[in-house]
């Protein structure tokens, strides 16, 4: 009997020790990802919680300002705000929700604190251990200020334009919004054009475009957003001019299909038609591959220099005949039947076979490689989102990373990719969007649309 009693006492002592030890276990690990330092009109709460070896039994988040406490989320769901709780793994959850003024009208400017409390079960659910984490941040509800400095903004359908503006504070993210397309702004001090010097950090510049497939009445404005998520938009006084785009018919010959389709399919086999037909494969190349290539080209915009690398008007390839213009609408026929429609976003310039292809202006080589329907292609960056593309080459004379001067040889013309014959496909690119090169070849346009505005801003 004494032995049994001793065993029971030992078991009770062990249980008490285990209970006390469980109470000293670590609680859930809380990581307050966002906000970091500031919240404004827009803002996001993001909290990750790890509960190794236990079940999350509590998660409460509150916002504290002065003597006011605003519930943001509760795992229990009683009297708290909403949020999205994602179970990322067996032991990790992530909570996200908006916490800007738009979601919390009671949010006031000034200091604030985020408090997160979490608990997990231990010792087979007999005990829970808790953790608390907090972060101090600032609520800033003042949006940036924007003023357009340049005047006379005239933009052709499918063409480019340029704006000079002031944004306060200087570090606010800004640019031009044209419909659904955004073009980033750059510090005007990086615009090394025409001998103009602008050192004011609040003065910014941006190149933008009215794309061929955007409505002529598309809204165009300068936008600015600060770290707190506060945003402002100011319309740009402008005039848009219609440009007629040509229509053409292309008859697909068997010889052409047999020449261009198989080499492309070797590089992009997933576009091959199930039945092996050349026409069906061509349609995949002309549609899907064209779309993929456009995405690749747009991606190079993020690699642009914050300084201008060019000067003066761009040069059209010498002694060339224009075979196709920008935004030509092409209808494709095979044996008398319409099979496809696409828009040609560039100029086709024909000279002699394997003619040397020269850089239209100085810049840096971003790409010198095969690029789907464009075949062997060189893409130059000229800074501030301005880039140029040279396609269907037969050979390269440059490589990525090279700096090139205006008129420097980039390679030789050819008929690689989806080309019907030896020629150069050339286009200009603004913020990843293809635009007409015509204006960039015009010294008067460069003077009036860009240099004039820089001089006026420098003198203001």
Strand and helix layout:
Blueprint: H1 2-23, E1 29-34, E2 38-39, E3 44-50, E4 56-65, E5 68-74, E6 84-87, E7 92-98, E8 110-122, E9 127-139, E10 145-148, E11 153-156, E12 160-168, E13 173-178, E14 181-184, E15 186-187, E16 203-209, E17 220-225, E18 231-235, E19 238-241, E20 247-251, H2 254-267, H3 278-299, E21 321-324, E22 328-334, E23 337-344, E24 347-350, E25 356-358, E26 363-370, E27 376-383, E28 386-396, E29 403-404, E30 409-413, E31 424-430, E32 433-435, H4 443-459
Parallel strand pairs: 2-9, 11-19, 20-22
Antiparallel strand pairs: 1-3, 3-7, 4-5, 4-8, 6-7, 8-9, 10-12, 12-16, 13-14, 13-17, 15-16, 17-18, 21-24, 22-23, 24-31, 25-30, 26-27, 26-29, 27-28, 28-30, 28-31, 31-32
Helix pairs in contact: 2-3
Main traits of this protein?
460 residues; alpha+beta; Immunoglobulin-like; Glucose Permease (Domain IIA); 3 domains; ten-stranded antiparallel sheet; five-stranded mixed sheet; 32 strands; globular
């Amino acid at each position: 009997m004494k032995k049994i009693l001793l065993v029971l006492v030992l078991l009770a002592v062990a249980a008490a020790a285990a209970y006390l030890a469980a109470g000293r276990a670590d609680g859930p690990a809380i990581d307050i990802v966002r906000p970091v330092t500031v919240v404004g009109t827009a803002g996001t709460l993001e909290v990750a919680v790890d509960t190794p070896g236990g079940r999350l039994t509590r998660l409460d988040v509150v916002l504290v300002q002065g003597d006011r406490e605003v519930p943001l989320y509760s795992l229990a769901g009683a009297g708290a705000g909403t949020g999205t709780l994602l179970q990322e793994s067996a032991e990790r959850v992530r909570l996200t929700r908006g916490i800007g003024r738009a979601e919390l009208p009671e949010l006031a400017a000034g200091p604030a604190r985020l408090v997160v409390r979490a608990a997990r079960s231990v010792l087979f659910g007999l005990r829970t251990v808790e953790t608390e984490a907090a972060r101090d941040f600032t609520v800033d509800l003042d949006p940036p200020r924007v003023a357009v400095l340049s005047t006379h903004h005239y933009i052709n359908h499918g063409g480019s334009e340029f704006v000079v503006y002031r944004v306060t504070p200087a570090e606010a993210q800004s640019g031009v919004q044209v419909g659904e397309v955004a073009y980033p702004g750059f510090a005007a001090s990086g615009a090394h054009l025409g001998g103009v010097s602008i050192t004011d950090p609040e003065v910014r510049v941006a190149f933008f475009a009215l794309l061929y497939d955007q409505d002529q009445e598309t809204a165009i404005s300068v936008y600015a957003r600060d770290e707190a998520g506060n945003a402002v938009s100011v319309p740009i006084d402008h005039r848009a001019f219609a440009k007629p785009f040509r229509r053409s018919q292309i008859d697909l010959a068997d010889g052409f299909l047999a020449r261009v389709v198989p080499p492309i399919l070797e590089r992009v086999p997933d576009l091959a038609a199930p039945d092996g037909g050349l026409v069906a494969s061509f349609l995949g190349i002309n549609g899907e591959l064209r779309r993929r290539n456009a995405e690749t080209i747009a991606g190079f915009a993020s690699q642009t220099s914050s300084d201008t690398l060019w000067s003066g008007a761009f040069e059209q390839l010498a002694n060339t005949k224009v075979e196709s213009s920008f935004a030509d609408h092409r209808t494709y026929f095979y044996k008398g039947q319409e099979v496809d429609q696409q828009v040609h976003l560039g100029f086709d310039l024909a000279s002699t076979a394997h003619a040397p292809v020269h850089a239209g202006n100085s810049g840096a080589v971003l790409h010198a490689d095969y690029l789907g329907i464009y075949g062997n292609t060189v893409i130059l960056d000229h800074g501030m989102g301005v880039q140029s593309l040279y396609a269907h080459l037969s050979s390269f004379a440059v490589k990525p990373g090279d700096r090139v001067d205006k008129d420097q040889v980039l390679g030789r013309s050819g008929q690689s990719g989806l080309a019907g014959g030896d020629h150069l496909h050339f286009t200009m690119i603004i913020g990843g969007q293809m635009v007409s090169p015509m204006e960039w070849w015009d010294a008067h346009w460069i003077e009036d649309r860009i240099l004039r505005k820089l001089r006026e801003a420098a003198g203001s």
